[in-house]
Design brief:
By secondary structure, the protein is mostly beta strands. It contains 1 helix and 4 strands. The protein has one domain.
Length: 84
């Protein structure tokens, strides 16, 4: 299952930064596992008024409030973000 074909299992937004969590099924050692991935994006307005999306951040944009809210995704499964 590719990330392009599945929908996020969870979405979150904090100001102009959004995150989406994906659960991707993989096979490892002849067993199916779920691997989680995170897509983080930032929207910003250009000088001409058009909206743009980027995945480049300034350190202050990934503030503790956003990091704290992102922690809510972790309890979805009591495992690491890798393979379970």
């Amino acid at each position: 299952m590719s990330q392009q074909n599945n929908q996020p299992i969870k979405k979150m937004r904090c100001n102009n930064i959004s995150a989406a969590i994906f659960a991707n099924e993989i096979e490892k050692d002849n067993e199916k596992h779920i691997r989680f991935s995170v897509q983080i994006q930032k929207q910003f307005r250009r000088d001409d008024g058009s909206w743009q999306v980027t995945n480049v951040f300034f350190p202050k944009e990934l503030n503790p409030k956003f990091q704290s809210e992102a922690q809510h995704f972790y309890p979805l499964h009591n495992t690491s973000w890798g393979v379970r």
